[in-house]
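Input chain follows. Return structure tokens only.
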Amino acid sequence: MTKKKRIFRTIAFTPFIALCILLNVLSIKYSPTYVYRLITMNVADVYDYKNFENHQIRAAKSSNKFISQPREKYVESLFDKLVTKTGFNSFEEWAIESQTTALIVIQKDTIIYEKYFNGFSRDSYFHSQSMAKSFISFLIGTAIDDGLIKSVDDPITNYIPELQERDRRFQKISIKHLLEMRSGLKYNTSLIPFTRIHSPWHDEAVGYYHPNVRKLLLENVEISSEPGKDFQYSNYNTSYLGLILERAVNQSVSGYLEQKLWSKIMEYDALFSIDSKKSNFEYMPSRLIARAIDYARFGQLMLNDGNWYGNQIVSKDWVWESTRENKSIPREIYPRWFGRSDKRIYYNYQWWGHVNKDSTFHFYANGNLGQNIYMIPDKETVIVHCGNSLQYYSSDFDLWDVALLLK
């Protein structure tokens, strides 16, 4: 073999060697399971729960049913601007091409729209994505109601003392800091150079695919800044809330969710995916799996200040504290796209919100790929949208436009 050919073969072989080294490093740092999931699952989608073990959450033996008085043409007309903007000829065409899977509108306790698309039905499972965060917030409220958590001002080390032994600065992080995404926890958001793809050590991926999230929280997550100072949307905040709940209520989070919510008001069973059989820890930020109509039930509960047909499921004070804008937080800590004027976005206790020019507000649970539970208090309305793409649907922003048109 000539020298020129040997050089060419070495150059051609170099990327493969580099890839092998990278995969080996990732396997050592995070585990071979993490690498396998990263390669085989790649980008998260609404079918991910099929790749994980799941805990079952049982529904109520009987539950109040919504009245149905369809106003389909009216509701679909509210999306006309979006349909036109995205270049489609009809709502039906937009729903199919946007990969919408469910759309439900409930106004004054009455279903005025409920349709499913792209092979989904009422009985299908719908991946919550980050809507799960709002359910975890709800459980923090019920744990406070039950006296199992004293206050949102408690240091997280009251419930996870091991963190203090690793870094004394964890004492300064409160439950409230986690709820507000203001904990100061380090969160890697790096991308592969010249792309918009998460790097293999991006914490979104690490937390999502890791087979032992509990160990990750106890041993590896670090602090990067003073708590309360900055806003950083981080899945670790919600995972720590789940670990606190697990210890405070002395059972799994899915078990407590069944006890405090599902077995009281929900129509269908649900699932909560775990990181692995060995760890048996639910992935709190995004792997709650339920039916769309039960997401609507949760929305109706929160719209009615935690009351379900005369039964107070969670305290009204908690609903108000967790879903309304906290005006004491400086707007400057948020990204500029949150807005600074009279029409703006806010974040509070794992819930998102919109403030309108007339001072009315909407609040909502928001998940990747188009998952929304959107509450419009002044119009007594809940909208649930589920999907599997953001190509033709910009999620909460599009529902904001729809909400303003709704009568």
